[in-house]
Q: What sequence folds into this?
């Protein structure tokens, strides 16, 4: 359309081309498909009968509009794949495929994170000497900061959350159709970061025999193991996230650790969290 931004157009063309080329079961494809009050950026119909629209977001959008638009397409039986421009106005701060702590996240990003069970998809623009292209999509997962409270902050007219961000690799362009909390969501075949960290911690547990060694029920041994894990993985994942996964593994009886020690450590971190934006350096 005439009002379409340059970045939006480049990303739309890349996604349309790549998804169409890499999904041989697509029987119908179009750009800017109209549905009465809606105009989808990209539309695909698969030989299974399933339909999907790709919504590329660059401009600011509210979480309510994301929900309303998703529900509208869903009532027509259509799955939705949301992809954000990582340097667009819809994000709290620029997003890139990397692990980083204490990043601004917009309410719209938080809503998509909920819809997609712990992931948000992004695409960025690459400016070369001879041509301008879009990057491959990448997934980001948000977890609570170790030092900043998980609340909504406001600075002037801008609202945002602070989260740690982890990058997940998207292996191919194939589309997966899922239903989560009654929402019909289309996504890629990337792994959830919770599962990635869980498998990594299980490998640690096997290496140090935490699965069967009863001595790790003692707080002193748990502290030693936790310190080692944080030394290796703390910069990448953060202590709060590591503790949450360790507690899940304990609950599932996948390893032996002192749950009380981990919960007390978690409580100490939360008591020290900053709740005022004036005290936060970003």
A:
């Amino acid at each position: 359309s005439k009002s379409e931004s340059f970045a939006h157009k480049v990303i739309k063309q890349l996604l349309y081309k790549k998804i169409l080329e890499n999904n041989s079961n697509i029987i119908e494809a179009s750009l800017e498909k109209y549905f009465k009050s809606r105009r989808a950026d990209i539309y695909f119909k698969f030989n299974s009968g399933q339909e999907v629209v790709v919504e590329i977001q660059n401009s600011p959008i509210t979480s309510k509009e994301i929900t309303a638009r998703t529900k509208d397409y869903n009532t027509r039986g259509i799955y939705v794949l949301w992809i954000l421009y990582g340097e667009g106005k819809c994000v709290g701060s620029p997003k890139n495929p990397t692990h980083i702590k204490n990043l601004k996240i917009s309410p719209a990003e938080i809503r998509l994170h909920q819809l997609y069970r712990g992931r948000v998809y992004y695409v960025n623009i690459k400016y070369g000497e001879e041509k301008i292209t879009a990057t491959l999509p990448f997934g980001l997962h948000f977890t609570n900061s170790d030092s900043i409270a998980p609340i909504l902050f406001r600075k002037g007219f801008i609202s945002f959350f602070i989260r740690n961000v982890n990058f997940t690799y998207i292996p191919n362009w194939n589309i997966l159709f899922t239903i989560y909390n009654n929402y019909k969501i289309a996504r890629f075949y990337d792994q959830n970061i919770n599962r990635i960290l869980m498998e990594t911690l299980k490998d640690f547990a096997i290496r140090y025999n935490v699965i069967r060694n009863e001595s790790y029920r003692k707080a002193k041994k748990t502290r030693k193991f936790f310190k080692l894990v944080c030394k290796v993985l703390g910069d990448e994942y953060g202590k709060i996230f590591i503790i949450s996964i360790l507690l899940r593994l304990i609950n599932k009886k996948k390893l032996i650790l002192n749950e009380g020690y981990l919960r007390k450590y978690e409580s100490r971190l939360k008591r020290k969290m900053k709740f005022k934006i004036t005290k936060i350096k970003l």
